[in-house]
Amino acid sequence: MKESLLSPAITIYGAGYVGLVTGACLSKSGHTVRVLDIDRGKLDSLAAGKTPFFEPELDHVLAEAIAAGRLTFAHPDDACADAPAPAHAPGAPATPFVYIAVGTPSTAAGSADLRFVRDVIDRLAQTASSGTVVVMKSTVPPGTGTAIAERLAQRGIGYVSNPEFLREGSAVADWYHTDRIVLGGQAAHVDAVATLYSDIDAPVVRCDITSAELVKYASNAFLATKISFVNEIASLCEITGADITAVAAAVGMDHRIGPDFLRAGIGYGGSCFPKDTRALDYLSRFKGYDFNLLRAVIEVNARQRMLPVKALRDRLGDLAGQRVAILGLAFKPDTDDTRESPGMDIARMLLAEGALVTGFDPIAHAHIDDEQFTACDTLEAALEGVAAAIVATEWPCFVSADWSALIARMSGPRIVFDGRNVLDQDAIHAAGGTYLAVGRPSTP
Ligand SMILES: NC(=O)c1ccc[n+]([C@@H]2O[C@H](COP(=O)([O-])OP(=O)(O)OC[C@H]3O[C@@H](n4cnc5c(N)ncnc54)[C@H](O)[C@@H]3O)[C@@H](O)[C@H]2O)c1
Hints:
- The protein folds into two domains: 205 residues, NAD(P)-binding Rossmann-like Domain (Rossmann fold), CATH 3.40.50.720; 134 residues, 3-Layer(aba) Sandwich (Rossmann fold), CATH 3.40.50.720.
- Helices cover 42% and strands 13% of the residues.
- The chain is built from 17 helices and 14 strands.
- The strands form two sheets. The protein has an eight-stranded mixed beta sheet with strand order 3-2-1-4-5-6-7-8, with helices on both faces. Strands 11-10-9-12-13-14 form a six-stranded parallel beta sheet.
- The longest helix has 32 residues.
- It is globular, with a radius of gyration of 24 Å.
- Bound molecules: nicotinamide-adenine-dinucleotide.
- The site of nicotinamide-adenine-dinucleotide (NAD) has 28 residues, from helix 2 and helix 5.
């Protein structure tokens, strides 16, 4: 293949969940893409044909794009990595696009840490050619992009805010079946970016940069609110004797409400909801506004994680020396992402109480450095001899497991705390276990 065909029309900073999925899917659509990352371990893994994290479908989309010569990887410091996209495959758009998909984690104060974004912008302000359009996929607080756009405009570089809504665990499918594509910026730049998505059947919302940024935060805050709301109703269920599974199912049948995100449990986690709700709360306070509702959502979520620990203390007394299994270390099924995972947090709380904790997850690895914690390779091994098990992630293999055989491996009170309200309560009771859940009557 000639060099001109390999020259990237699209450069992406960040080979994480968003950057790699964006790169793979844009390549699949026929664009030539180069993904840059500062993590050489990730680049080595990609060079060896290994996706650096688990994401369904991503392996084969990446493999196809690489085999077709449309997707390459590099370190930003490597020679030519920052050169503006010089040539394009026939039919490819003439505008060089640079996507930013680097992390925006929380600072200790709760604000969005923009240092990775700033590094990339500083670099682009030096190296990108006039006519380039920078596309911001990283989640950045409202107001961030207008300042960046003004700076880049001085060099003739365009800027579009294009927040990403994909979910880990279904990221590739979400790319093609997104509910909307949001593009904030000047019309000419927005139109240019929209051409890249012409094969996606979704409405395109055109707006200003700050509105696009706020759409992302508002969406995550609303979904988090739904989760904390149903968890508040679950608490009322426990007080009144109602069953949240029946209540939530019937409430969700109202089409104005909908059934999604109405499952009570130990709360949301992951790399987005916790940090984005904190960042929006921080921004509100910074601007002198009290977003009371959002603060309550965050507080309720923190409380939910303590429920299993409190329940075990109520049933077992002092937890020092008690054996407890955590089932599910990823923050949700179909991902290996353990960032802000409830399961990991609960494990740490139990360890702080002196419990002996085993953990199992079908994919995710525990990052807990504590001699009282044992990561197990199987569900059976994790449950061997434990007094209690906490289901922290609703992995299908936990739901379909033979709980009568699993309960037999446990010892003592054989408590199963179903933190996701997904197990068969009767089967656990029949096997001699004690079933506890969130917002449901316990047995016995
Ligand atoms: N993960 C999600 O489900 C999701 C969904 C929507 C939006 N987002 C947002 O997208 C952004 C990226 O999230 P993610 O989960 O993909 O992050 P991630 O942590 O998985 O990946 C970020 C990558 O950026 C790289 N990086 C950092 N600085 C760099 C630089 N200067 N040059 C090149 N690479 C650099 C890191 O090494 C890392 O590999 C965040 O702002 C996040 O909030 C994430």
